[in-house]
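Structural prep section.
Before we set up the soaks we want a predicted structure of the protein with cobalt (II) ion in place, mainly to decide which crystallisation condition to try first. Input record follows.
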Amino acid sequence: MIRLKNEKQIAGIRKSCKLLSAMYRELVPLVKPGMETAEIDRWARIWIKKAGGRPAFLGYGPRDNPYPAAICVSINNEVIHGIPGKRKIRDGDLVSLDSGIELDGFVSDQALTVEIGKVRPDLHALNVATRECLYKGIAAVKAGDRLLQVARAVQRHAHSRNFGVVREWGGHGVGFDLHEDPQVPNYPHGPNPRMPNGLVIAIEPMINLGEGGVEVLEDGWTVVTSDNSVSAHWEHTVALYGGKAEILTEALDDLSGGL
Ligand code: MF3
Ligand code: CO
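Run finished without errors. Recording the tokens verbatim:
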């Protein structure tokens, strides 16, 4: 069941989203070669707490294997849900950051992929195309139109660049909880409701340099590409109100590096 949001609730989600984007604005410039990914998580936890929020990812998921961090850090062939730890960031890496904040009961979700130092031109092209997929998807959010138009827009753009679309994971309703109905896939699949005013969704294309196939590592979280190709991930929280889409999170395009 899709839980629609009224104007006041959207204002609450917007506030949570702006806070999350403000965190990235401070965090991303600190991410440098030699940095342990666990350091990114420690920093994010402290920042979110100081700001009066709660890390929405921390403790999320199955009771016997909850997600153990405030932020996902997924490097190169890691697609999403990378768990921060001892691994160090290196020059030339594509580092995807994904986090969420609960503020006054309202949940935000945003991801971006950062180019560390000098990255290979094909990886830069992948990153740019993935971000373009996100904005193509958002442009398809219009009251009364079908949800899978978003999926078609994302898939069409990725395929036009000969990149692979990850099919096992996708976007979702968000705002009261981290994951709500509807599912927002990045290829046309499953339920295709009309999008009503009051809809709040996270759109999050995950695009691979190679094939779209993925696997989950032993840790039960880290999603990697099956062919070991590099992957990128961009996400915004978007509200549909007054007939059109508002991006509630702030654009972080200028933080991605390599521009
Ligand atoms: N943006 C990610 C998603 O929607 C965040 C979830 S990570 C989790 O799947 F750890 F919280 F599950
Ligand atoms: Co999400």
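Observations: The longest helix spans residues 7-27.
Flagged for discussion at group meeting.
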